[in-house]
Every structure is written in structure tokens, then in C-alpha cells.
Amino acid sequence: MARDTTSTLHQRIRADIGERIRSGAWPPGHRIPFEHELMAQYGCSRMTVNKALSPLAERGLIIRQRGAGSFVCYPKVHSVVLDIPDIQTEINGRGAAYRYELLSRRSRRPDRVEMAKLDLAASSQVLALTCLHRSNGRPFALEERVINLAAVPEAAEVDFSIVAPGAWLLGTVAWTEAEHRISAVNVPRSTAKLLRIGASAACLALERRTWRADEQITCVRLLFPGEVYDLMARFSPQVIGVEI
Description:
Layout: H1 5-23, H2 35-42, H3 46-58, E1 62-65, E2 69-72, E3 77-80, H4 87-93, E4 98-108, H5 112-118, E5 126-135, E6 138-148, H6 165-172, E7 177-186, H7 189-195, E8 202-212, E9 215-225, E10 229-232
Parallel strand pairs: 3-10
Antiparallel strand pairs: 1-2, 4-5, 5-6, 6-9, 7-8, 8-9
């Protein structure tokens, strides 16, 4: 039987690229050779190159951008869906430098959406915060948070230009229940500019509400560039006949 040299070649190309990425020779953001360059280097067809690159993109090792080429992806952070993660801990945990910026802070009355989310009266007071989290200097997450000042009055005196509100709440305020809502969204041009992504690029949006008994503490919306973050949960099937 004749040997399938095309199959062997595309596997070799994929292995060569994968090894350069894993060894660090091609760091995150590095542009890998254009398809025509790989065709010339390996003496193969465009179809063979495409068969080599497609699985790498599916596994999240590279991102292919029409007209711009293919680039090594930034590592993704995996977070358990049912946990409340601390962004700084996650970024530091993968060996990256964390930096935080407070973009805006305002004490005010809640709008209609916030009244519904936090079950507040129109006369209530909330603390509205907008923050940017960075990993190795690169925008990692935009945080839009509202804190119920009736539930957490001490938040009004905290200097959130120094400490991120999520980290402060996790370390200060006991919570008993949380709700996550996750979606993929396109963001306004102003938000895309803050996150340094294209205007048409998708973001992962994580919306969370947190309670202490019957009292709602905070609601937050976190926007992550789609290529740097995902959410993962591991679970087992419920045993039939056993209540959990």
C-alpha cells in the first residue's frame, strides 16, 4: 500500500509549529509564517498547510485572522463556573504581572435595571465602579460593578483606586449565594478600545449577583476579550435515587 505522504506532512508541520509554541520560541502574539511561506518551506499545497493549522486553531494554540495571518494565542485562564474568582489571584497564578486601574467611581441612586437586579427602591444609594484589570500590561477584563450601600455601607469609605472592589468584597463581606450569567457579546467601540480589541471581536460577558441571606450585596459585569479567558466546570452525574 502506498504511504499517505500528504497526511504525514501536515502532521509534521503541525508538530513543528506546536513545538515552537510549547518551547516558548514563538511567544503569545507571535505571528507564525504566512501560508505561502509554509508552502514554500515544506514544499506542499495550501490544502496541506490548512490541514496542519486548523487543529491548532481548534485547540486554542493559534488564532487565524483573515488578511492578517495566524498568531500564537495568549494562554487562557480556566475558572470554575460556580466559584467567585479573584482576578488578581488568577493572573498571578499563571505567572503574569497584575495591574489594576479604577476608571470611574460614583455614589448615586440606582437606575431601573439596577433596582431590578438588586431589589432596591428608587431612593436607595449605590456605589458604581468601573475598573480595568491588566495581565502583563495587556487589558484582561473590564469590570462594571454596583454595590448596594445599604448592605455594605463601609464600601463608601474604601479607596478603590488601590484595591479592586471584587477582591475587597471577597475578603470583607460574607456571602451566602451567587448567581452567574454567561454570554458572548459584541461591545461598543469605546469598550473595544479600552480592551484593545477589534470593534467586531467577541467578548465573554460574565454577569454576577451576590447575596447575604435575603440581602443583595452587589451586581457586576465582567467583560473579557474572547481569546484570553474561558469558564470551565467539572461535575459528576447525579446518582439515581439519591438526593443531593
